[in-house]
């Protein structure tokens, strides 16, 4: 038995006891006769809200996964934008687009969706003190020529604008969502088939079916969400029947689960070592090279993931099918320096159960190079502020490369530019890389854009900005009675109006 798995087994009894205690926190989930519909769906989510369920944060993906909010478009399985609150769109010229807004839609507070409401919602996102990452570096002029048309003029050509507007951070909300103090609330202000009726801090969320939904009424009476950041607890909740769907189940629990309940999905998500490129030990390229030289992704995949992941060849794994064939030379030419006695702090978070185990092996590997490693491991909501402000020398993080638009350029702009607004763990500001990302953003969807993306990947890896460790596969747990849950590699959909559970 390897060191990491032995560690997990030793703590397993205590964690399982805590997990079983948590099952009492889940709602009963029986059929709700008063709502005239099927059983409520109980979710065990992996990551607690870090920004009060603000749609302008990473919390927006949860709002979308619960079908509480909707955007103008949505991505299909191939990552191409499809109609949602916009029924169609057309490009008038290089910078001008028009979107036809769906008629007969009401917000969950009873107000009407029309072109002016869409313009108001998108303008609020543009004017936000902290813009949604999908709008980083993007300027738009919005207008409503009539009640069912939204015209958008971009400052520069934006070939992926419809895909950009599919982002959950650009959910269209009613006017009541936008408060005088600048905060935004999706509680009862979306357009989806489920309406948020209660938020229990970072512990629970309750959603009821919205019977005024413009599409087919939800088959389930509602959704009861519990945030269970410990992976063992999520698995126990599914096994015990306390949860119907459990997100991001850890590999350590697979042997205890009925294989029929486990559903594996290749993800455009990579676990990486993010060096702090701006200050500290790893501002020195030779120290980044020294660390990179001893890191062994294959050992991590074997020992931590037990083969349920892929040793990373780059930032873009098997879920991005064109990446492998277009990948050029990513080898670093930087000579490793002498790391002996260099003290560093390595941070990661507990919300993704494998990351603390990754940290154990990464520490061992770095110590072989002479680094003196101190770990700082917390829940993401407690760690993120420090991590995003450069408090650590290394952060081990898990990041989807398709979160913003389904197209990797948005991810690259958000995370690796001087004005990055997203997961800026690398603390990078390199004008040459900025220009390469800007050039990629001007290309139309297709081979030229793909080649430009892979050129940026090569620059990042050649300079040891980041070391990809694992291209991930998500494992979603679903009880035997669940039907119609979405297994979405883009992590935008989970429960829909079609999802049911039979008990």
What labels would you give this structure?
13 helices, 19 strands, 503 residues, globular, Dipeptide-binding Protein, domain 3, disordered N terminus, Dipeptide-binding Protein, domain 1, eleven-stranded mixed β-sheet, 22% strand, 27% helix, D-Maltodextrin-Binding Protein, domain 2, four-stranded antiparallel β-sheet, alpha+beta, 3 domains
Give a topology summary:
Blueprint: H1 3-22, E1 41-45, H2 60-65, E2 73-75, E3 81-83, E4 86-91, E5 96-101, H3 115-127, E6 140-146, E7 149-154, H4 161-164, E8 194-200, E9 204-209, E10 222-227, H5 231-240, E11 245-246, E12 262-275, H6 285-294, H7 297-303, E13 309-311, H8 323-326, E14 343-349, H9 354-368, E15 372-378, H10 380-388, E16 394-400, H11 408-416, H12 431-441, H13 447-462, E17 466-478, E18 482-483, E19 500-501
Parallel strand pairs: 1-10, 1-11, 14-15, 14-16
Antiparallel strand pairs: 2-3, 4-5, 5-7, 6-7, 8-9, 9-10, 11-17, 12-16, 12-17, 13-17, 18-19
CATH-assigned homologous superfamily of the largest domain: Dipeptide-binding Protein, Domain 3
Largest sheet: 11 strands, mixed
- Helix percent reads 25-40%
Distance from first to last alpha carbon = 38 Å
What's the architecture of the largest domain in CATH terms?
Roll
Shape: globular
Specify the number of helices.
13
Strand content: 15-25%
**Quick check: average pLDDT?**
91
